[in-house]
Amino acid sequence: MPTSRSYRDQCGVARALDIVGERWALLVVRELLFVPQRFSELRHALPNASSNLLADRLRELEQHGVIHRRKLSGAQVYELTERGRKLEPIVLALGDWGSQAPAPPEPAVLSATSALIFLRRGVRRDPSAPKIVARLDLDGSVWTVRVEGGEVEVGSGEPGTADISLRTDPKTLGRLMGDRAAVDGALAEGSAALVGDREVLDRLLYGRRASAE
Length: 213
Description:
This protein is an alpha+beta fold. It folds into two domains: about 10-100, Arc Repressor Mutant, subunit A, CATH 1.10.10; about 110-210, SCP2 sterol-binding domain (Nonspecific Lipid-transfer Protein, Chain A). The protein has eleven helices and seven strands. The strands form two sheets. The protein has a five-stranded mixed beta sheet with strand order 5-4-3-6-7. It has a two-stranded antiparallel sheet with strand order 1-2. It starts with 11 loop residues before the first helix and ends with a helix.
């Protein structure tokens, strides 16, 4: 059942936590940063949250004006409201802070959104480097990643044209971003498949670090 617990504290921090402090709430916000998602897609991204618990969090977030529902291509999707979008820098800052904490024990999950957040924020980019348009297929979901002027833009769907195409899963992508030496093995064993120039892949995944090694 949805919770109505409150800290009963007038501080803005406490009032914010009354809305997004329940378990899974901020992870729902994280998953909606790039694209609206159906309930089934959120369940896939958050497999350790039960259907009932996820439904409760979605209902609470909707009641508080953080998300709303709409029809998209005939399906009901959840997306952030303008108020909910203001949580983005908070969620990203929490991710930066939490990345220094010990990793959870296996089995652990990594969603496509989480991997793409790290791709967007975890690599130093050279503003003078050539533009990259990449097609990423992560567990069957296609994303377009554009790198230009030191900035990374992530969107769902097929790019018009792409310099490279990479098919893999989110956990493998996370592993490759953390260990450049793992790329050859992933390509050889088939856990990642590349169409295009390997040097462009290196620039996408490692930015300045590729040229520095």
